């Protein structure tokens, strides 16, 4: 089903969300108070509109409450981000995702009813630090404070062994949810699947269990 979105704030973050959603075939209304930014997006988004969304009349006249999902990607102007979010929720927008600049901003956003709060710079920093600190972790996605999904490259020690041979679930309490092998991907591999050297294992589990597995792989 084609969903319709509004992206408010067309900086680096909002701009890339707008482009990606459009490429995914979604309908996107792009809004920014800066006319030059709006002009840049007029050929990308379904509609591109100049407007200051801290103004209640702008939110009402654009009918934003009729959209499935509104993304507030206003950058440095925390006051404008908070006011916009508050007004969107007061106007009955069902789903509002907001980019937070810092933890305090995030706390205020959750108090005023933002449905999803994202911290892209902080999260990307964490992700990159995990990759930098480990020899075998290729990518990292935090699921909760204690659980993650990681991509681990299979070394010679485990290459040539099946998942059941390695007894990964019983020994480490983690699950291999997929294996990337060159250009193909094996989703939910069978226990009998033989892991090949340089396969990329996509593993889900508790952080300390993943750490144990990672140490074993070194
Ligand atoms: P990023 O860090 O993602 O690059 P920026 O701070 O460069 O973010 O971009 C935020 C965008 O939000 C700017 O294009 C700015 O014009 C827009 N913006 C700021 N305040 C408002 C507002 N009240 N209404 C609409 N757009 C706004």
TrEMBL record:
An example Gene Ontology biological process: potassium ion transport
RCK C-terminal domain mapped to chain residues: 135-218
Gene3D superfamilies: NAD(P)-binding Rossmann-like Domain, Regulator of K+ conductance, C-terminal domain
One Pfam family named in its UniProt record: TrkA_N
Signal sequence coordinates: none
One annotated GO molecular function: monoatomic cation transmembrane transporter activity
Residues of the RCK N-terminal domain: 2-118
InterPro entries linked to this entry: NAD(P)-bd_dom_sf, RCK_C, RCK_C_sf, RCK_N, Trk_Ktr_HKT_K-transport
Entry protein name: Potassium transporter Trk
Organism placement in taxonomy: Bacteria, Bacillati, Bacillota, Bacilli, Bacillales
């Amino acid at each position: 089903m084609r969903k319709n979105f509004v992206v408010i704030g067309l900086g680096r973050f909002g701009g890339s969300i707008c482009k990606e959603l459009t490429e995914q075939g979604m309908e996107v209304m792009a809004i920014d108070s800066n006319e030059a930014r709006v002009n840049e997006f007029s050929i990308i988004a379904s509609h591109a509109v100049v407007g200051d969304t801290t103004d209640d009349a702008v939110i009402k006249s654009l009918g934003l409450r009729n959209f499935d999902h509104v993304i507030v990607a206003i950058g440095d102007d925390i006051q404008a981000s908070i006011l916009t979010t508050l007004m969107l929720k007061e106007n009955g927008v069902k789903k509002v995702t907001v980019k937070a600049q810092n933890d305090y901003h995030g706390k205020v956003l959750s108090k005023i009813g933002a449905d999803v709060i994202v911290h892209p710079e902080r999260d990307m920093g964490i992700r990159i630090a995990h990759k930098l600190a480990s020899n075998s972790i290729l990518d990292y996605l935090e699921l909760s404070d204690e659980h993650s999904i990681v991509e681990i490259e299979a070394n010679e020690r485990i290459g040539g062994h099946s998942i059941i041979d390695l007894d990964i679930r019983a020994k480490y309490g983690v699950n291999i949810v997929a294996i990337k092998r060159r250009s193909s991907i094996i989703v939910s591999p069978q226990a009998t699947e033989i892991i090949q050297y340089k396969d990329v294992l996509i593993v889900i589990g508790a952080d300390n269990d993943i750490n144990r597995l990672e140490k074993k792989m070194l």
